[in-house]
Design goal:
Strand content: under 5%
Distance between the termini: 17 Å
Number of strands: 2
Shape: globular
Structural class: mainly alpha
Radius of gyration: 17 Å
Helix content: 55-70%
Largest sheet: 2 strands, antiparallel
Amino acid sequence: MRRMKKNWIGAFCIAVASSAMAEQDPYESFNRKVFAVNDAIDTAVLKPVAQGYQSVVPTPAQRAVGNFFDNLSEIPNFVNGVLQGKPDTAVTALGRFVFNTTLGVGGLFDVMDDFGLSEKPEDFGQTLAVWGVQSGPYLVLPIFGPSSVRDGAARFTVDFSTDAINHLKPESDRWSATLLSAVDTRASLLSAEKFLQGDRYTAVRNAYLSNREFQVNDGESAEADEFLDDF
């Protein structure tokens, strides 16, 4: 979602030229094939739609859409904060969801961010990491893109069940919300493409791995912080 934009830009800066991360990619041959298919779909469909969305939809409306989906993500943030034994994270997620949903008109406005209570993103992959589960090899998933063995399993279990969009009915509403979320996310990452230099596969892989390390360590990577502070 839009909340990931800043981390991804910073991750591109610190990871594009890295070669050590290749050791985490024993499935590179397979991953490159899946990446090529995903990239072709993105080039032909998702990117043009995202560009059209960004050029046609007013910036305040785009921000409202991003805020709405970010507000829904406070549900898994709360659940994973509890599972990780992080009461501050859980309370922050609950408070943000309650007040942004009410005072923020269903989450269209991030009123809590204006009060200095920023989002603390958590997912089940991060929870498994806290529980001592290793990331495992880098893995490119069809459609979903960069992941790992651990994070891929997390995505389709607890993360899936705590995503409010997956519980929408009728099914047409669920697909509409999923599509809008995907387009909004892709639009928010358009500016990060300037960091995709050289081999796109390697750049995306290294950026993803750097970003995940940053997230799992709760932003304690000094190197990542140095770059992120510049954006």
